[in-house]
Structure prediction request, 297 residues.
Amino acid sequence: MSENIPVNLYTIQKPLIGETAQNKRLTPLTRDPRNDVRHVMIRYKGKLPYRPGQSVGILMPGIDPLTGKPHKLRLYSVASVSVGDLGDSQTVSLCVVRHFWDNPKTGEKKIPGFTSNYLCDLKVGDCVTMTGPVGRHFLLPEDFKKRDLVFTATGTGIAPYRGMLKEMFEAGFQGRVWLYFGVQYQDVVLYDDEFETYRKHKNFFYVKAISREEKNPIPDVVPTRENRMYVQVKLCQDKKLLSEVLAKPDSMVYLCGLKGMEQGIFPVLDQIGRELKIQGTLVEKLKAEQRLRVEVY
Prediction:
């Protein structure tokens, strides 16, 4: 299937120019800028055939003061269904958090990231220069309808699952799907209302890990920083159930979010593998069988 998915229809040399149709804050104003997350909808003319699980590139205008060259392309996961939020195949939506970084050379802290802050500050009608779509690795398999799927996300890594879940249920999904979502606070659970509505499907299971408000009850089994509640703790608590799911030859695991997720989640998967008495590690097995899809940054 993925062979037929178009990629790189638009490039740095030949980009697609769109305009901002919506910039909606998803988190409370009381949260500091590092928890300022936006749903940015960009309208365009022409064709941009994308699927949830793909990304688009954003080219910020102007010159990067650090390099004296044009700003680097930045990729963002698509947060909408294939036909866009308005259903007319003329918009793409992104889920963007204001990014800040520390410069170890100068000691300067909390420096605003260029592209994320540019996107978060867009006004309706502002032009946006895009490339893409990019990526085939993180898509749903063609025969997803009867498979069991485990989706894990932290922060804005939730973006691809928003479109995937909507398309899955609209297509008559008959397998089971788990969504494990880790954030710092209950009031910054992105798209929470949308995911809650899927609970009406008996084959959808939604598990939230709120790191600053819940304590890790099994620190001896899954150690976490300051005994915080992370996604891997919830996975370990559901180990018995997930063993049964991952023993199936066609079940799949998806990871999207901060790179640190891997070092938390992979040991739990390998623990499940040991209990299933598989040869080698479960992570290696899932990778070899194309059943583990990872999109981290």
Observations:
- The chain has seven helices and 13 strands.
- The helical segments are 114-120, 159-170, 192-197, 231-237, 239-246, 261-275, 282-288.
- The radius of gyration is 20 Å.
- The mean pLDDT is 95.
